[in-house]
Amino acid sequence: MSIQEKTSTPDLMESLREELTCFICLDYFNSPVTTECGHSFCLMCLLKSWEEHNTPLSCPECWRTLGAPHFQANERLGRLASIGRQLRSQVLQSEDEQSSCARTPGASRVFSDDEQSVINFSTQSHGINRAYFSSEAEEQHKEKLQDILSLLRKKKKEAQAILNHEKEREVLCKQEETKTCKQVVVSEYMKMHQFLKEEEQLQLQLLEKEEKANFKKLRENEIHLTKQVKRLSKMIGRIEFTCQNLTLESFEEVRGAMDRCELLLLQCPETTITELSLCRITGMRDMLRKFSNVTLDPATANAYLVLSDDLKSVRYGGTRQQLPDNPERFDQSATVLGAQIFTCGRHYWEVEVGNKTEWEVGICKDSVIRKGNLPKPPGDLFSLIGLKIGDDYSLWVSSPLKGQHVREPVHKVGVFLDYESGHIAFYNVTDESLIYSFPSNAFHEALRPIFSPCLPNEGTNTDPLIICHI
Question: Tens digit of pLDDT for each residue in 220-229?
């Protein structure tokens, strides 16, 4: 190997490291993803950056505004970063061994390759008197010891900063986070109480209605039986009088009396049958399952989306269809609206997301912007976004954009809207748990369901979104 090649190797290694380094954490890529603008970042670095800076979303490197948190996993870049990390470690280790052999045998490495301060100590130097060292060597060792002290102080400062942060989180966990969870629990149970109160009133009204109907039946039958008793009493009196004055010449009169009472004898008194409905107390799940029959609106669907014949499912087709570019249609976002328009009442529907790696469902204003792919203004969109990259699964709500990581993917989402109380919530239908409940918001415009199967991701995420049938 030539001298020029030897001197250029570190530069080449540094150039390779820069190309395989995340712009945010300045370390080799870990589960890298690539944004719409072509820049790549570690998945967790990008999500934390978006979570800290809120909306509008932008690229941390070029600051280009992004329409939505859409990005693609870059597995090849991740593999290259892993190879680069191993290659750099091996090269630095080889150089260190060569340098150790040139100085003293048995040198040991103190710091990692990524920390640019490395000092070598001979295992035999501990028994050597300081007089054998030249002043220059002693000065070099002092400088290296100072480097060690500097690194130790840096590590201590970092550890102390993390410790302080953890203490702050303890306070936040005890106060703010728990307080927020308590508020959510109170809100959910208030909603349950309201539902149960209304169900109670409906049951009481039904019972009152049936009580009036039963009373009417009893009263009518009482009048009928009273008349029947009077007719029977009158007939009994006549028969008794005839029996007391019976002669052979009055046989025809007896026969006539028998004919007259025959009809009365055939009439049988009947009791009134009354009915009351069973009082069923409806549970929370049953109350939410008062489904609204939601279907898709073809006039709003992006030209790349394919809708089923029953307008209950939507998938990304991959080929642009020849459809009119009407004002209602989304032209850049892979989105379609529900055909139903809500201006009052409570509504609930469920969406099967299956094993999709990216999807979005929710509620938006009927006046939501359909053209372009700009971020939606706060209050125009209330959606839930699912993202699965590798083994990491997260759920995001907008707007404003907030994220949370979950252990297991959600396969079926329940969407609940109470227009009058300004309440919107998302539920995990599988385990009947609350995913997220938006703060109450007064609605003054018409609202509509919104769906996006999102774009395919290297052959994945091709499954449709399916609105569950009633």
Answer: 888 988 888 8
